[in-house]
Amino acid sequence: MLASLTVKNLALVEGTTIDFAPGLNVVTGETGAGKSVFIGALRLLSGERADKGMIRTGTDRASAEAIFELADPAEINELLEDLGVDPCEDGQLLLRRVIKAGGGSQARINNCGVTLAVMKAVGVLLLDMHGPYDHQSLLKPETQMAVLDSYGRTEKERAAYAAQWEICRALESRKLDLLGDADSVAQQMDILGFKVRELEEADLQEGEEQSILQEHTVVANAQTLLESGDTAATALETGAFEALVIAQRALEDIGDKMPEGAGWFDEARSIAIQISELSTDLRSRINRINADPARLEFLDERLMVIRSIKRKYGPEISDALALLKESRHRLDQLGNLDGELAKVDAELDAAIKELKKIGKKLSKKRVTASEKLASAITGHLRELGFEHGGFSVDVTVAAEPRSSGLDDIDFGFAPNAGEDMRPLKAIASSGEIARVMLACKAVLAEHDKVPLLVFDEIDANVGGEMGVAIGEKLRDVAAHHQLIAITHLPQVAVCGGHHLLVEKSVVDGRTVTEVTSLTGKTRVDEISRMLGGKGASRDKLAKEMLGV
Question: Which pLDDT score is estimated for 363?
């Protein structure tokens, strides 16, 4: 439940904290006193976009903060964990929203900064708000579908259908891509063919550029390398090798007379062998250098080809090779367009067949639920003044599958005896629609998990006995949820377990809004005011209505 709501510098409210109770909380006050400010605060905390015009004149920011106390925070905590937000401690959830005159806003959940999308995802699980014009949404097919699905608990079937719907959409998109127009396909094939030919003619290999650069360096410096190599080899063969031969003879003589001499001799001989091998390897490699100018020209041209391809299709050779593979595949697809279309058509036919199979399961569950929903809403409507009224929920097969299923949903309404059932949108007045919406909420109350329902003037355009019926119905719904109801009807106000009065006054030349919790005489006075003024007779009636 919502334990408290703190509002600062929002419209006429300078700063106040409102404590709420379980069950039905009624909010009353003169028109223009600022009752809607608190609804606006709750909408901000539900993740709706802010209007900086809501900020109190003369201040640079406004804020709203709510504390929810959750009996079972498991679902909320699971969502918070997925969103990277700290879980509730002892079932307490803190929401905070700040809007700034300079633009922008801040949102926090349990003192963690979050996006509006995250706040909205959490808000959906916390409260359901119904404003003065929201009942008009009941005339929309999508709202009627949502009511039926919520009552019928079709979440599993809807999710399966939605997943299959996306598969079908992807295949349809693929088919459209393949179809295109003939000129487009021919143009694609020309472009792809050019790319493939150019890349195939280039005949690039992984690592080729590096090896060519190395060879280019050698061939470009062939004369220098040949001369230096010959000089080095000659020096090794003559000077170094001949000196080591002389040294070996001397060391052999030393070895006959000193124990260490034998080791020195072996070491000198090993060095001589290494010098000989080095000289041989050096001449062999130098002699393999291709000093032909034609080879250098070839390497230059090859480097130009590689760099050109890299500029066009790179930045690396591996990218160009990947593009070649992809282009060949796409070219094959376009060249075999009929075959590809046949393949996609077969996959699409199978996907649509599966979609209809899943959709029929969803439809069956909706049809079953529709009869029970119609009966339940009819029962509540009769308690709301339509003693001989009737309500129907018609589920018919749609012309084509759609994202919501295979069905069309239509709510029918017959407010009076002897009248035919007609579509709700064709006959209902605003007062009638409001009561139908309340009946729907009453039916769904036992199904919905949302802890808080907020009704802003659900009793608009009704009065008298209808007000009594609406008040009693709100009290019934409050047995399953915490309710906040803004009302102008005393018949509704007396049904609340907790009564809040919103008043405005002028302090130091500024209009301010204050909220007071009413009990005892103060509540009697407010009900008297709502009845049309004050006086002994109205006070007596107010006490009778309150049962005090």
Answer: 95
Q: 458: burial class by Cβ within 10 Å (0-12, 13-18, 19+)?
A: buried
Residues 6+ away with beta carbon under 8 Å from 420: 414
Residues 6+ apart with CB under 8 A from 213: 303
Distances (CA, A) of 203 to 84, 195, 200, 314: 51, 12, 5, 14
Helix axes 430-445, 337-383, angle to 10 degrees: 100
Determine the Cα–Cα distance for residues 501 and 26; give it in Å rounded to an integer: 9
Written as one letter, the residue type at 129 is: M
Kindly give the residue spans of alpha helices, DSSP state H, lying in 139-207.
141-152, 155-179, 182-202
Give the side-chain half-sphere CA count within 13 A for 251.
Answer: 16
List, in order of start, the domains of the chain with CATH numbers: 2-132+447-546 (3.40.50.300), 185-335 (no CATH)
Rounded to whole angstroms, the Cα distance separating 485 from 503 reads: 16
Strands 127-130 and 452-456: parallel
Tell me: the pLDDT tens digits for 515-526? 899 999 999 999
SS3 label, residue 456: strand
Of 449 and 475, more confident: 475
Q: How far, rounded to the nearest angstrom, does the alpha carbon of residue 245 sit from its chain's CA centroid? A: 84
The pLDDT confidence band at residue 255, using thresholds 50, 70 and 90, is: low
Helix (H) or strand (E) holding 270: helix 259-287
CB 47 within 8 A of CB 119: yes
- Give 409's pLDDT tier (boundaries 50, 70, 90): very high
pLDDT band at 141 (very low <50, low <70, confident <90, very high): confident
Least confident of 35-49, 177-191, 326-340, 363-377: 177-191
Torsion angle of the four alpha carbons 254, 258, 259, 265, in this order, in degrees rounded to the nearest 10: -10
CA distance 331 to 363: 44
C-alpha–C-alpha distance, residues 141 and 154, integer Å: 17
Structure tokens at 277: 């091998």
The model's confidence at residue 135, banded by pLDDT at 50, 70 and 90, is low
pLDDT grade for 15, boundaries at 50, 70 and 90: confident
Lowest mean pLDDT among 120-129, 145-154, 269-278: 269-278
- At residue 218, φ and ψ (nearest 5 deg) are -70, -50
Contact 102, 109 (CB under 8 A): no
At 134 the pLDDT is 64
pLDDT at 371: 93
Q: Using CA atoms, how far apart are residues 366 and 532, in angstroms rounded to an integer?
A: 47
Which residues are CB-neighbours of 63 under 8 A, at least 6 positions away? 6, 7, 8, 9, 10, 96, 97, 98, 99
Q: What angle do CA 381, 386, 392 make, to 5 degrees?
A: 55
d(CA 34, CA 60): 20
